[in-house]
Amino acid sequence: MNLIKVLYAFLSVSGLGIVLGIGLAYASKIFTVKKNEKREKLENALPGLNCGACGYAGCSSYAEAIESGEETVLTKCAPGGSAVAEKLAEIMGEKIDVSMEKMVAQVHCRGGNEISKYQYEYSGIKDCNALYAMFDGDKVCNYGCLGLGSCIKVCPVDAISYDSEGLVWVDKEECIGCEKCVEVCPTGVMQMMPYSADYIVACNSKDKGSTVRKYCSVGCIGCKLCEKKSPEGGFKVENFLATIDYKFNGERRAAAEACPTHCIIKNEPHPKKK
Amino acid sequence: MTYVGIIITFVFINNFLLSQFLGLCPFIGVSKNMGPAIGMGFAVIFVMSLASLITWMIYAWILIPLGITYLQTITFILVIAGLVQLVEMAIQKTAPPLYKALGIYLPLITTNCAVLGIALIAVRSNYGAMESFVAGISAGGGFLLVLLLMASIREKLDTEWIPKVFKGEPIAFVTAGLMALAFMAFDKALLRNLIG
Question: What number is the average pLDDT over the span A135-154?
Fold first, then answer.
């Protein structure tokens, strides 16, 4: 008796499922919407990461905008770079200049727990923006990495992580250049740079050299030694902070080695924290 | 007269959004503008009325005779999911702008507890086929009514100065709370006074 009831239950639910399934299959034939062929091609050409770097909600809306003619700039896809832009141009039958350089994000700060001085002890929620709302962060330096990893959370491809020294570092091989971390970072220490760049100035402090020395041992003090070491160009010191002129393609090693605080470092993948 | 009672009950007294608090996701999500709110409201009316009718049929003609009423939840969910899929296809075909405006909230009707709620409530109240259908329509009507009220309030709020911390969803929740308070004025006494 009980077994029959189980059978009833099985048959009724599966029968209902079959009826509904057939009904839906039939309905989908009646209600088919013809998708635009060109739009579909554009969508397939895009990487499908839906990161939003192009300014649209996702890859499909960017494809739609291109297809309808609303959007004429085909190079907005940062993760795809020039390869995707070329494909898009091919589909649209246009010729574009695709000599754009892939941009990646990087943290311009190496001030860890032992190196930087702190003005107070923070024990609130682990969010950089929450921390920054209180006296511009717990470090004495108001320009550096706060280290709570809001960028790690926002990264769609897990390119950002803590390295073996416990500092936030971007793996430039993984980075797709969507600039989400740049947007979320309150101090502006996360900045975009060309993928091909070999060195970065790992400091964002615009304070005077003497001030920087007081609160951080790896900060840029604006001594202009890097400018002197590479007289052909490549470095520029403004507001007591050295920046790299990425258009200059020459050697930067001499300047990096000469830097008294060693804040000009190689932009290479760091071992991840275990 | 029972139909009038059912309509008043489900539109005002037991309003799904403001006194039973079912299906709050589209209530907050789609009530930013009038247009999508109307579309969503009618989609919910359609799904609710059909769902309550079909679930009644399944309950009365399949589950009760076979003595397997304990399967009501799972079968109802099955039917509702199928129905919503059908509605989604129909809207995509006939009204693409509405389909775009509703976005994610349309498939979310599938998992909308308001739709499952009306099916279960109708069964539990021992409603007949017609009564279930009317209950479904009026529950959907109540949903539409509240969605419209909310959308018009939120459209007006857009032009007002609101403290930064309250902007967006927070002020919407406060508004919803106040509206729920107002809807508490409708209770069973109203029904008794109206139709005895």
Answer: 90
Find which of B74, B85, B87, B89 to mutate to test the A interface (most A CBs within 10 Å of its CB). Answer: B89
Domain that holds residue B70: 26-151
- Reported as a single tens digit per residue, the pLDDT across B13-66 is 888 889 888 888 888 888 888 888 888 888 888 888 888 998 999 899 988 888
Count of Cβ atoms closer than 10 Å to residue A42 Cβ? 23
Cβ-Cβ pairs closer than 8 A, A with B, add up to 47
Answer yes or no: are the C-beta atoms of A154 and A181 closer than 8 Å.
yes
* Region(s) of chain A under CATH 1.10.15: 37-92
Residue B195's contacts (CB-CB under 8 Å, 6 or more residues apart) are B1, B4, B5
CB contact under 8 A, A16 and B58: yes
DSSP string of A234-250, one letter each residue? SEEEETTEEEE-TT--S
Between B129-158 and B113-124, two packed helices, what is the crossing angle to 10 degrees?
Answer: 150
A33·B93 Cβ contact <8 A: yes
Number of domains in chain B: 1
Per-residue DSSP letter, B165: G
For A37-92, CATH number out of 1.10.10, 1.10.3470, 1.10.15, 3.40.50 equals 1.10.15
Nearest CA in chain A to B96: A33
Instruction: Assess whether pLDDT exceeds 70 at residue A99.
Output: no
pLDDT of B102 strictly over 80:
no
CATH topology of domain A103-266: Alpha-Beta Plaits (3.30.70)
Could you tell me if residue B64 is inside a domain?
yes
